[in-house]
């Protein structure tokens, strides 16, 4: 028996596992410290009421013989896919039901989609970047080409026609930087992918945070994207499903490579390796798209947006350079006084009892930056900003 040698090329531990260990060790030494966690992007507002009520009703259904559900369709129940279809229709995007696949979250599908592609494909990934994009390709032994995302280009790199690629990762609104591509920039990426005969893996997990109507919420809004892009989305940050797990992936039927339809390949992969999302969870997810569900989710998103505004206001006041925080739940700050990412992380943890995420963990271009999330409690967010304000004044 031989192991997958590519695992030797991974960092010893996942970024958020390292953060968790450091925080745990600090808490053991300082049990009375009041830590404010603005690092991991977990939500703090409970599931929206419409989803909870729908799941309660679904639980009752599962307890009756005449309405019990066993194995469901691997690609998702039609009632949820029709809800997603209607949601995209509001964006001006027409989708077939068979182009919508319900999943247990965007993270899972972003990794699993790689089953469709050969190991010799060249992968283009912006740096800094969400670690899952990098690690899953290292596990498969693919060549990774990094795009420089930096403060000068607003952490929104554009394609270089001289750089060849087969698989392209884009995330907008971006994790970790909070930057958002406009239509012209996404148009450039679609044109590039088409010319390269490449596929774009587009992570739209934070699309609900876009408040500027001029910014695209989906790459499918760009003409030609249905021939070069797959889109991944999630209920985690918009409806509080981080612990409930549900998302969806859009695989257009027009995606054809080497005479193979990626839509058919993904359906085959899912029916072989995935048993679908629980009926109860899908009923809750479908309720998110009802008028009441959309209203409740908007209230939660607006709450987080206000947290982001409070954070940005504090950074402006003390002269800390940042991007994001608008149209995004993430604020990406340049560490003050020339501090390194982990150095500033340790300072915030040990001196201010505030937990962030060091930018270096997202790639070499993240060194010197730190990510903070707006998913915290309002009072805690205000308190954390006051601690940072006071520390900067000193």
Descriptive keywords:
394 residues, seven-stranded mixed beta sheet, 39% helix, alpha/beta, 15 strands, four-stranded antiparallel beta sheet
Question: Could you provide a short overview of the structure?
Answer:
This protein has helices spanning 15-29, 49-62, 78-89, 106-112, 131-140, 183-196, 236-239, 262-273, 279-288, 291-318, 341-352, 378-393; strands at residues 36-37, 100-103, 122-127, 143-148, 167-171, 199-203, 229-234, 247-250, 256-257, 260-261, 322-324, 330-334, 354-355, 357-358, 369-373. It is of the alpha/beta class and 394 residues long.
Description:
With 394 residues, the chain is of the alpha/beta class. It contains twelve helices and 15 strands. The chain has helices at residues 15-29, 49-62, 78-89, 106-112, 131-140, 183-196, 236-239, 262-273, 279-288, 291-318, 341-352, 378-393, and strands at 36-37, 100-103, 122-127, 143-148, 167-171, 199-203, 229-234, 247-250, 256-257, 260-261, 322-324, 330-334, 354-355, 357-358, 369-373. The strands form four sheets. It has a seven-stranded mixed beta sheet with strand order 2-8-7-6-5-3-4, sandwiched between helices. Strands 11-12-15-14 form a four-stranded antiparallel beta sheet. Helix 6 (183-196) links the parallel strand 5 (167-171) and strand 6. Helix 2 (49-62) runs antiparallel to helix 9 (279-288), helix 3 (78-89) packs parallel to helix 9 and helix 10 packs parallel to helix 12. It is globular and about 60 Å long. The mean pLDDT is 96.
